[in-house]
Amino acid sequence: MSAVGASEVVAVVDYGAGNLRSVANALMRVAGAMSPSPRIVVTAEAETVAAADRVVLPGVGAFADCMGGLTALAGMRMALDEAVRDKARPFLGICVGMQLLASVGREHGDHPGLGWLPGAVVALGVRPGPDGRALKVPHMGWNTLSRCAIPHPLLDNLADAPDVYFVHSYHFEPDDRRLVLAETEYGGPLAAVVGRDTMVGTQFHPEKSQGVGLSILRNFLEWRP
């Protein structure tokens, strides 16, 4: 980590994943209100990611395409392992960036993920709504977060049942339910926040979740695991 009082470097990984700029802008907005202000760096360079104090992996699109874009960047897979698993830098995955933490994504075939959190990314499938009719897929819109038994600093200082914004057709089913930090209800419970050690991921988009989302991003930037 950077020395106390120094400005941290937060690497936002640019691998062609769609929502990069909105994530970076939201982080910059939050960082600008902090002192010292973390430096948000959008990068496709493995060396920058390996040296960063924190790493953010956004993601929009198909699992295999996103994983392919990530691994196509020279040295990036190794840099992520070095920063997050070897150096234990705080890591935030967003939407498909969270799903890539899984062992496998089952979207149009089976595709290996980063394998940091054992489990599979699977289709939402047909889910009944309160009136018995099938809910729409993709799951798109505002849904309420429900914290699980294990508290996490990412969810500190939020309302008891905050609403956040989702857009997804697939979801992460971890092998170990203790990896689920918060859920949402959509025809049954879905993992909304997952994590362990210094890594955490959100299925929803904090950058689109207004004040709640900005609070979550600030919690991430202030997190000292």
- Count of helical stretches: 6
Q: Nearest-angstrom radius of gyration?
A: 17 Å
Low-confidence stretches: none
The major β-sheet equals:
8 strands, mixed
- Care to count the β-strands? 14
What is the number of domains?
1
Helix content: 10-25%
Mean pLDDT across every amino acid position: 93
Using the coordinates shown, work out and report the CATH topology: Rossmann fold
Give the structural class.
alpha/beta
- Which oligomeric form is depicted? single chain
Order of helices and strands: EHEHEHHEHEEEEEEEEEEH
Large-scale geometry: globular
* CATH architecture group name: 3-Layer(aba) Sandwich
Compact overview of the structure:
It contains 6 helices and 14 strands. The protein has 225 residues and is of the alpha/beta class. The strands form 3 sheets. It has an 8-stranded mixed beta sheet with strand order 2-1-3-4-14-13-12-9, sandwiched between helices. Strands 6-5-7-11 form a 4-stranded mixed beta sheet, covered by helices on one side.
